[in-house]
Amino acid sequence: MNRSPVSLQREGDIGLLLIDNPPVNALSPDTVQGLIDALAAFEAAPELRALVLACEGRTFVAGGDIAAFEDPDFSAVPYNAFLGRLEALTRPVVAAIHGTALGGGLELAMACHWRLALRGTRVGLPEVKLGLIPGSLGTQRLPRLAGAEKALQMMSTGRMVGDQEALAAGILDELCDGDLRAAALARARALVAQDWQPRRASALQVPTAGLAPDFFDQAVALAEAQFHYPALGAIARAVRAAATAPSFAEGEAAEAREFMGVLRTPQSQAMRHLFFAERQTGKIPGLPKDLPLRSIERVGVVGAGTMGGGIAMALANAGLPVVLVEATSVALERGMGLIRKNYEATVAKGKLAADVAEKRIALITPSLSYDDLAQVDLVIEAVFEDMALKKEIAAKLGAVVKPGAIIATNTSTLDVDQIAQASGRPADMLGMHFFSPANVMRLLEVVRGARTDPAVLATVMKLAPRIGKVAVVSGVCYGFIGNRMAEVYMREAEFLLMEGATPAQVDGAVQALGLAMGPCRMLDMAGIDVGAKTVIELGKTGGLPADPSYRALVQALYARGQYGQKTGAGYYRYEGRTPLPNPDTLALAEALAREHGIARREDISDNEIVERLIYSMVNEGARILEEGIAYRGSDIDVVWTAGYGFPDHAGGPMCLADLRGLAHVVQRLEHYAQVRGNAHGYWRVSPLLRQRAAEGRTLSLGAR
Ligand code: NAI
């Protein structure tokens, strides 16, 4: 039998309950059972006069067992009953807290009678980030200790609070430096010596002095208005119960009801799915675990434009020295100037200390010579999207960077294998596709070339979290995972506009789903010119369907010089940044429809817009899986939520399709094939999607 992760030791006449469940002392079923057993042992040892509860390793209990929520029989009852018994002890119980006490960990600490923390400790109830609410009396004890406003704020954002803030709020009783366990034992002895009577959070009243009479009802109404996140309403209602229920037990029952209510919501399922999905992307099938990685300590970036500058900042923010190479001194100065301006803006907003910003800028060395790249471990090329230029630079880099260095291209559409071939070192090469602004956006698509050395791939995947990115591997294809799917999404948006929907209607329909921005606003912001050029370039390589109406609107807008926000007109017309209806564009869409024989309709519903945009994208995602471009459906969901503003509460497009049912998705695709016609194969259902639907399986959700 395995050793229990919990033990009860004796330190003279004080019991020391120790949790040792690396890495973060999460509340596994074994740990909960260990706690129950250790408490029973303490109860049976009346000679012990107080209990200290502490954790081995780098942190106090930092959360629950998230995988356990997927179990249909999940129940919080055993743990909650344990917390009740712990708090009910008549001998003092001291929590000795270090690291991060999160979720079930903070709930454990709040059931103790005294909370002593090592300086630097942080605490929080982050359940909302999984679409859940604290389910082990956090919603009941925290408002009693910290007040309703603070508790609501902490639980609704999931934010961690630092030691000083937690002390001031009454969540912690005392801070110490040095030997936490010794200090906790000393505190326990002192309490015993004073004959101190345990102070139980459950016995306190939620302080309501100073709160408006309708404070709780207002809080509930505000939270419920954010209907995409049902956990917010549940948290507010549970806190209201903490303040207004006649007894703690009734508040506890209210919390349990609310918890079970959110546990099975699609929103929470989706957010938990993403939690696991993000932890999964680094696992690359077929790669040996012990593959020796290359070391990355110095990085080069070629091109100091929009992307190169952002990439250099992302690297410098992680403390990596960067050599930034440009073709001309004018471009180099402009690039460095923009980087400086960017940092200064962050400092001005109070989000970064001025000296830290200076240190980061100092990490970036501007240069006009490729020779300065000789000693870097990784170089990322971010020059214009031009195959001839990219090949020329790849060849230069292949010749100049030291053996063993990794060469990456930030191309968004070009064939990484061709560029790799040009470098003369295809095994050292891959794509690193950042998203704009590269110092802000979390997504990094890592494009694995046909000849990329597995160690190169694994090294870059390992680098990603260091520079604040979540990396997803993509195979080589046009647009990789994200932009390839965005292309079909834009295709349908444009057809709908030509059929008679307005940009506001198309955007509104997907924004109601929770997407940050609909396709028309997105392209107006990114630039119609940028969008049109990629379509035109794709056409030149023979990559477009033989359909003259394909994305005809974006090309016509481009031809008219309507580039979106930057020229004041695109799909919309702009006053400042405010999008307004653009009658010219509506007329243009109508003229194009006439030219291409597209029937105009007045009955386009929001549901049709959502289905045509999202389901066609899901279908493309299934093809991406079929072709092995993505390793798993959940990787595709990470691409869309981390890189394209797809809402976390929907879990990504593939998860959305799973939750709605793949059979339904197939049926709707077939419906559109029939009513829209399928001459160009737009509605051809992916065989994988069809097969999964027939087998009642999923593409992403739970398909780990
Ligand atoms: P940009 O035009 O802002 O910057 C390109 C820079 O490369 C310019 O500063 C130019 O002076 C420099 N450059 C040109 N030839 C050079 C050479 N021989 N040596 C050194 N520097 C040279 O372009 P942007 O937007 O930064 O795009 C760069 C790459 O990133 C492209 O491949 C693009 O497709 C890709 N990309 C762009 C995204 C975006 O949203 N802008 C998103 C993801 C990838």
TrEMBL record:
Residues 299-474 form the 3-hydroxyacyl-CoA dehydrogenase NAD binding domain. Pathway: Lipid metabolism; fatty acid beta-oxidation. Keywords: Fatty acid metabolism, Isomerase, Lipid degradation, Lipid metabolism, Lyase, Multifunctional enzyme, NAD, Oxidoreductase, Peroxisome. It catalyses: a (3S)-3-hydroxyacyl-CoA + NAD(+) = a 3-oxoacyl-CoA + NADH + H(+). GO terms for molecular function: (3S)-3-hydroxyacyl-CoA dehydrogenase (NAD+) activity; enoyl-CoA hydratase activity; isomerase activity; NAD+ binding. GO terms for biological process: fatty acid metabolic process; lipid catabolic process. Pfam families: 3HCDH, 3HCDH_N, ECH_1. Residues 479-574, 609-697 form the 3-hydroxyacyl-CoA dehydrogenase C-terminal domain. It is found in: Peroxisome. This is 3-hydroxyacyl-CoA dehydrogenase NAD-binding domain-containing protein. It comes from Xenophilus arseniciresistens.
